[in-house]
Inverse folding.
C-alpha cells in the first residue's frame, strides 16, 4: 500500500469514528494504558504487544491487567523483533474490511516496532482493503529530568527496511532529532561524520524545562553548528514538524545520501519513518541501548497527539 | 579543505575531491612506500590519513599537487590508481542487504561490484581527461562505451557518465529486490544476471577493453585502492587478502585497514599472504613522540601558510606547553622554582632528590647529568602534581581548567600524529583569527579540552563489546577510566617516583574478551601502540604489546603529555578495582 495523506487530528475526533482495530503496547510506564483506557471497549478488534522483558517492573503488571480487562489479545515479543508486528499484519489486518479505521498507539512501542509496521504496510497489498486510515497516537509524558547516567549503546545503524542503498561517492547528510541524553547526539555525529549536519530540537515542547534540557545536554554540538542548522520544531504540531522536515529532506536528498536519526520524542521518529516511506532514498537509523535502558515511570500528560495516515492500494497484484 | 564547512571544521578526506586534498597534502614516508610497485596495506585508526594517501595516488590528485616536483614524484605513476570509496553508511547499507534471507550475500556482493565498477569508470574518465586534452574522438569513444556497456550487460550509452548512472540505478533495483524478498521470502523473484558478476572478473574485463580501445592494446598496471576495509564485509576482506598472495599481474592492491583488522583473517587463510613477502605493511601511527611531532610541525606550518598566506611559526602562535622538554633547568628558572616549592611540601620529593644526591640549597653542585637524568624526568610529573595537588594539604584540587594543556607541542601531542585531528584542532583554534597573533593559553585549553570531550562522547556512543574481568563487566569507557585512574594515582597522588607509568603491557592475564575490547580501542585511536623501534611495526597480536591512552583523552582523564614507563595491564585493573587507600585522592575527571 502507499501513503495518500498525512494529517493531524485529535483523539476526540477518533472517538467519533467506528474503530475496527486498536493496537497498543504494554510496557512499564503508566502512560502505556492511557489510549487503551480512553478507547475502552469501542474497537472491534484489540491487540496489545507486551514486551518480553521487564514483566514485573513498575506499572507493567497493572498495564497487562488493564489490557486483559479491556479484552485485548496479547502477544509477547522482543522489542527488537519484527515477529509480533508480522503476525499482526498477516493474521489480524487481513481480517479487516475496506476503509477500516485503525488506532495504533506508539507511546510505549520501540521505534523498531512501528517502523516495521510501516515497512510491512508499504510492501503489502490486502485482498479486501483498498483504503484504510491509521491513527497513530502518542501520549507525551509529564516532565522528568534527564537521566544522570547513560546505558551503553548496543546498536547504532539503519532500521531494517529503512536503509537506502546508494553508492558511497555521494556525500552524506545527517538530520538528527535531539533528545535530552548527554552527548549522545554528539557521539553519533562523530560516528557518521556526515558532510552536512542539521539538528531538529523540540521548541516549543510540552514543558519548557524539556526544551532547556535538550539545549543544555547538547550544548557542545549546538555551539558548533553553522547558523541555520539548528531547527526548532513545534512538538505539539505534527503538521508543522512534518512540513519542516519534509522541506529540508527534499533539498538535501538531491545531492546527498540522507540519514535521519531521531533521538528525541517518539512522534518525531514517526514523522521520520513516514517521510522515508514516501521517499525510499531516505535512510532512518536508530541508536539503542536495547533492553539495558534505565527504567522510569513517566506519567502521561492529558493531551495525546494523533497523526492520521491514509493508505491506499497501489493497484499491484494482491499478495494477502 | 581548511575552509571546509563541516560541523566540526574537521578534515575528512572522504568528503574532498582529489584536487582539494592535493592542495594541502604533506608528504610522509608512508606515501613514499605507497608509491612502490607492490601490494600495500595501510594501517591506522580513524583519521590517520589513509584516505588522503590513497586519493593522492589518483591521476587527478597528482596533477593538482603543487609540491609534487619538489619531492621528485613523477606526474604519471607506474600504475593507474582506482580509488574505491567506502564509509560507515555504505557498509551499514550492505549489512542490511546481507540480512535478506537466502540471497543476502549475493545482493551484498552485487552492490560491492557496482561500487567497484562505478569507481573504475570514473578513473577511465579521469585518465582520458588527462591524456587526451580534447577528450576521446567519437571513433574511439563510441566503441569504448559500446563494449563497456556490453560487458556490464547494459544498453549501449554514448558516455562513461551515462554508464555510471546506470550502475547507480542498479543499486536501486537491488534495494527493491531486497525489499520484496524480505516481505515475502517464499516468493523469491529471479535475480538479474548482473547480481552474479564477480567484481574482480568484471574489473579485469573492463580494464582490458579500455587498454585495447584507448591505449591501442598497451597494458596498464592498475592499482585498486580499497578504502576503509576495516568496516567492509568480511568476504571482501578475505578475498582481497587472498589476492595479495596471487593475482593477475596487471593489478596491484592498496588497501586501508585499522591497526588490528585483518590480522586474524590473514592467520586463518591457508597459504595466506605475509607482510614483507607478499605485501608491505605501512603503519600510520607514530611509535615515538619525536617522529609524530616532526610530521605535525610540518603540517602545522603548511596549514598556517595557507591560512595566513605567510610563513608563521607554530611556536610563536601557540607558545610552549608546560610539559615541554625545551626548558631551562637552571636555578632561578620557572622549573627550579616549581621544584623548590614542591620540595618544601612533598617529603617524598625531598627523599628522592636526596637519594639522587641533589641538594637544591647548593644549585652549583647539580650536574648536567643530574639535569638530564633526574630533572628532565621530573618535569612532567611535577607539572601535573602542581596542577592537582594542594601543597601541604590533603585532597586534590578540582580544576576545570588546570592550565596544563596548551602550546604548539601540546597540540601536536594531543593530535597523536593524526592529521584529521590536527587539522580539526587548528581549524577550531584559529576559527576567528584573521592575522597571526598569539592565541591565549586559556583559549587553547578550552578548545583542546572540548576536542577531548567530543572524542570521549564518540567512544561512549559506539556499540562495543563488553569484557569480564573478575566479576566486573567492562566496556571501553570503563576500561579507559580505570586505567587512567590508576596512572593518575601513580603520577599525582602516590609518593613521587622518577619512573611512573602511563603505558600498559597486554600481559598473559588478559583474557580474550578484554583483548577484543583493546582491539576496538586501538582501531578507534583511543589507545595507541607504543613501540621502542622507530620504524613502527604492525604487531600480529596485541598480546605482549605496549599501549597507552591517546593523548586526545589527556584533557579528559588528566594525563601528562609525555610517554612514560609501562606496567602490566592486569596490575592496572586489579589495583584500580580496589578502593583507593586515601579516598580523597580521586581523579577529578572532566567527563560529563
Amino acid at each position: 500500500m502507499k501513503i495518500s495523506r498525512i494529517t493531524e487530528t485529535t483523539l476526540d475526533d477518533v472517538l467519533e469514528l467506528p474503530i475496527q482495530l486498536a493496537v497498543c503496547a504494554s510496557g512499564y510506564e503508566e502512560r502505556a494504558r492511557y489510549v487503551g483506557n480512553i478507547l475502552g471497549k469501542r474497537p472491534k478488534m484489540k491487540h496489545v504487544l507486551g514486551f518480553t522483558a521487564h514483566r514485573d517492573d513498575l506499572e507493567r503488571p497493572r498495564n497487562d491487567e488493564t489490557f486483559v480487562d479491556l479484552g485485548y489479545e496479547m502477544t509477547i515479543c522482543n522489542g527488537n523483533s519484527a515477529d509480533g508486528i508480522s503476525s499482526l499484519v498477516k493474521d489480524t489486518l487481513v481480517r479487516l474490511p475496506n476503509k477500516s479505521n485503525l488506532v495504533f498507539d506508539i507511546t510505549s512501542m520501540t521505534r523498531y516496532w512501528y517502523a516495521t509496521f510501516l515497512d510491512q504496510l508499504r510492501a503489502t497489498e490486502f485482498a479486501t482493503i483498498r483504503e484504510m486510515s491509521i491513527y497513530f497516537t502518542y501520549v507525551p509524558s509529564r516532565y522528568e529530568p534527564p537521566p544522570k547516567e547513560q546505558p551503553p549503546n548496543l546498536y547504532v545503524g539503519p532500521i531494517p527496511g529503512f536503509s537506502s542503498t546508494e553508492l558511497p561517492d555521494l556525500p552524506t547528510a545527517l538530520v538528527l532529532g535531539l533528545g535530552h541524553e548527554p552527548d549522545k547526539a554528539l557521539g553519533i555525529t562523530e560516528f557518521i561524520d556526515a558532510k552536512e549536519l542539521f539538528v531538529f530540537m523540540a521548541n516549543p515542547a510540552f514543558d519548557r524545562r524539556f526544551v532547556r534540557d535538550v539545549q543544555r545536554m547538547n550544548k557542545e554540538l549546538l555551539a558548533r553548528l553553522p547558523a541555520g542548522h539548528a531547527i526548532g520544531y513545534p512538538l505539539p504540531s505534527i503538521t508543522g514538524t512534518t512540513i519542516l522536515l519534509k522541506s529540508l529532506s527534499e533539498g538535501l536528498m538531491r545531492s546527498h545520501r540522507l540519514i535521519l536519526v531521531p533521538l528525541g520524542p517518539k512522534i518525531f521518529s514517526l514523522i521520520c519513518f513516514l517521510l522515508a516511506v514516501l521517499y525510499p532514498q531516505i535512510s532512518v537509523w536508530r541508536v539503542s541501548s536495547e533492553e539495558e535502558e534505565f527504567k522510569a515511570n513517566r506519567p502521561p500528560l492529558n493531551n495525546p497527539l494523533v497523526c492520521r495516515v491514509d493508505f491506499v492500494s497501489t493497484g499491484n497484484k494482491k499478495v494477502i | 579543505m581548511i575552509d571546509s564547512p563541516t560541523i566540526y571544521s574537521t578534515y575528512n578526506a572522504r568528503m574532498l575531491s582529489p584536487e582539494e586534498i592535493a592542495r594541502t597534502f604533506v608528504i610522509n614516508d608512508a606515501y613514499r612506500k605507497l608509491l612502490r610497485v607492490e601490494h600495500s596495506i595501510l594501517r591506522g585508526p580513524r583519521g590517520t590519513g589513509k584516505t588522503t594517501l590513497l586519493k593522492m595516488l589518483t591521476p587527478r590528485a597528482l596533477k593538482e599537487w603543487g609540491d609534487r616536483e619538489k619531492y621528485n614524484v613523477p606526474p604519471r605513476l607506474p600504475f593507474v590508481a582506482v580509488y574505491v570509496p567506502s564509509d560507515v553508511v555504505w557498509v551499514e547499507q550492505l549489512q542490511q542487504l546481507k540480512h535478506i534471507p537466502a540471497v543476502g550475500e549475493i545482493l551484498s556482493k552485487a552492490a560491492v561490484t557496482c561500487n567497484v565498477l562505478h569507481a573504475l569508470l570514473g578513473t577511465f574518465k579521469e585518465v582520458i581527461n588527462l591524456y587526451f586534452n580534447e577528450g576521446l574522438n567519437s571513433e574511439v569513444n563510441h566503441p569504448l562505451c559500446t563494449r563497456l556497456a556490453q560487458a556490464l550487460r547494459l544498453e549501449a550509452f554514448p558516455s562513461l557518465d551515462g554508464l555510471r548512472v546506470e550502475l547507480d540505478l542498479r543499486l536501486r533495483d537491488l534495494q527493491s529486490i531486497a525489499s520484496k524478498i524480505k516481505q515475502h521470502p517464499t516468493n523469491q523473484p529471479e535475480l538479474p544476471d548482473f547480481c552474479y558478476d564477480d567484481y574482480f572478473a568484471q574489473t579485469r574485463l573492463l580494464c582490458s577493453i579500455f587498454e585495447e580501445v584507448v591505449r591501442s592494446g598497451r597494458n596498464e598496471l592498475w592499482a585498486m585502492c580499497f578504502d576503509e576495509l576495516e568496516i567492509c564485509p568480511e568476504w571482501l576482506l578475505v578475498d582481497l587478502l587472498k589476492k595479495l598472495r596471487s593475482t593477475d599481474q596487471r593489478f596491484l592492491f592498496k588497501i586501508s585497514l585499522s591497526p588490528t583488522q585483518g590480522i586474524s583473517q590473514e592467520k586463518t587463510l591457508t597459504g595466506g599472504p605475509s607482510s614483507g613477502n607478499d605485501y608491505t605493511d605501512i603503519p600510520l601511527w607514530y611509535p615515538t613522540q619525536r617522529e609524530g611531532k616532526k610530521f605535525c610541525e610540518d603540517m602545522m606550518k603548511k596549514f598556517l601558510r595557507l591560512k595566513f598566506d605567510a610563513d608563521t611559526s607554530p611556536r610563536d602562535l601557540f607558545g610552549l606547553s608546560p610539559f615541554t622538554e625545551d626548558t631551562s633547568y637552571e636555578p632561578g628558572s620557572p622549573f627550579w622554582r616549581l621544584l623548590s616549592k614542591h620540595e618544601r611540601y612533598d617529603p617524598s620529593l625531598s627523599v628522592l632528590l636526596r637519594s639522587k644526591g641533589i641538594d637544591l640549597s647548593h644549585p652549583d653542585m647539580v650536574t648536567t647529568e643530574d639535569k638530564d637524568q633526574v630533572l628532565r624526568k621530573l618535569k612532567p610529573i611535577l607539572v601535573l602534581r602542581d596542577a592537582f595537588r594542594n601543597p601541604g594539604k590533603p585532597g586534590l584540587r578540582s580544576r576545570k581548567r588546570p592550565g596544563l594543556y596548551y602550546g604548539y607541542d601540546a597540540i601536536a601531542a594531543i593530535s597523536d600524529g593524526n592529521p584529521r585531528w590536527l587539522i580539526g584542532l587548528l581549524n577550531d583554534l584559529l576559527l576567528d583569527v584573521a592575522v597571526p597573533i598569539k592565541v591565549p593559553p586559556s583559549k587553547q585549553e578550552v578548545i583542546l579540552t572540548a576536542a577531548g570531550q567530543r572524542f570521549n562522547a564518540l567512544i561512549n556512543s559506539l556499540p562495543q563489546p563488553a569484557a569480564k574481568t573478575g566479576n566486573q563487566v567492562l566496556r571501553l569507557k570503563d576500561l579507559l577510566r580505570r586505567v587512567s585512574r590508576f596512572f593518575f594515582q601513580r603520577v599525582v597522588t602516590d609518593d613521587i617516583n622518577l619512573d611512573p607509568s602511563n603505558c600498559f603491557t597486554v600481559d598473559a592475564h588478559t583474557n580474550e574478551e578484554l583483548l577484543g575490547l583493546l582491539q576496538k580501542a586501538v582501531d578507534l585511536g583511543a589507545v595507541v601502540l607504543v613501540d621502542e623501534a622507530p620504524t613502527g611495526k604492525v604487531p600480529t597480536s596485541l598480546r605482549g604489546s605496549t599501549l597507552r591512552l591517546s593523548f586526545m583523552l589527556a584533557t579528559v582523564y588528566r594525563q601528562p603529555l609525555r610517554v612514560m614507563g609501562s606496567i602490566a595491564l592486569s596490575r592496572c585493573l586489579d589495583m584500580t578495582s580496589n578502593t583507593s587507600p586515601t579516598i580523597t585522592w580521586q581523579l577529578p575527571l572532566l567527563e560529563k
Q: What stands out?
A: Chain A is about 30% helix and 25% strand. The longest helix of chain A spans residues 238-252. Chain A touches chain B through 49 residues (CB under 8 Å).
